[in-house]
Amino acid sequence: MPVPIRRLAVALTVCCALLAGSTAWAAGQETAPRSPTVAVAAATPSPSTSAEKQKFAKTRFVANAALAAGATYEWIWKPYKEGKFKKGAHGRKATLVKAGLAGAFTYNRLKAAVRNAKGDPALSKALAPLQAAIANLKDLPAKLRKGDGSAANSFNDTINKVKEAGKSAGANVKDKVPSTSQLNSGS
């Protein structure tokens, strides 16, 4: 597709003007006499607890819980329901490795969601009874890699409880499937 000559001329002119302007600005920065500056601390109150320091606690909780729920559904619950964890299933080894990674990712994101929930009183109160259930997920990725189906049920039950707790506190969690790179990096 041919580009009109006028458009090319305008683009070239704008690029030259930006280059000349940035060069002049940089030259002016180098030759300007520098006077000593004194840093003065601003008198702003700082929060005293980590819960007060956390901004957008509910939003961050929803994001982390959604990623955990998506990973659980996509790589743990759905393959479990399709029978891909059973001995002799096609692609079982790859499915179990993915499930183990997803389990570790889910545990990581749920721990982050619990930390985020501490910044919101309603979420903190709603998630308090689930602390033990989330902590119990720590050893389940190893069980998933071995093909233990009860681990899939534990992950799904905990995710559903977290979703319900979030909903009761006004933070609706919808599944968001993480990318494979997020799953591999754990964040």
TrEMBL record:
It comes from the Bacteria. Residues 1-26 form the signal peptide. Residues 166-187 are annotated as: Disordered. Keywords: Signal. Residues 178-187 have a biased composition (Polar residues). This is Uncharacterized protein. It comes from Streptomyces naganishii JCM 4654.
